[in-house]
Amino acid sequence: MTAVCPSCSLADRTVPVPAALRDRDVPLDKPDRGLLDVPPEPVGRSGVSTGLLLLAAFSSLWTVRAVLTLVRSGSAATAGQVVATVVVATVMAGSYWASSALRRAADRRQAAKGGWPASSEQWKLVHRVWQAAWLCRNCRAAFLPAGALGPGFPASGPLSFEHFRDWLTGTARQAEQLGGFAPADRKPAAPAAPAA
Ligand SMILES: [Zn+2]
User: Where does the sequence pass through the membrane (predicted)?
Assistant: First the structure.
């Protein structure tokens, strides 16, 4: 696939942005690499939050085992078995609740900083736009060819490398508001069967 540069109208020096960043034969300058690389994915979970989630997962297994033991014991269940079941169930619920609360607090802090993308889902939209973007080595412009993000998705104008990341996040935010992109791999409708 080739793409025509919207700035100089040439197609022989255009290349997808991810390929240009990987290209060792014609490497980009370091400052340009910084301007064109995909923004880092936001850190979704702290280590503590992940540890609590693991604890919740393990204690849910203990809870199932303890409940099964109780059921098998029936009326012969000891008070100790009942207490043990309640304790592991409490640990499970508590650790899950604490993990969720920590993650929500981290999301709120990220949102309060005004950072976007703030979640992994939002970052995936940014990454999708970045993967579809091209650049022109002739006139140092980045651009999005028509239809690169799905059928009918409009082409962008030429973008300076300096504005590339703002454009990435702006386009991804728009897509988020519209509920995502049209699937790029959507096949065109099958042609109607020829009339007999
Ligand atoms: Zn160009």
Answer: 77-99
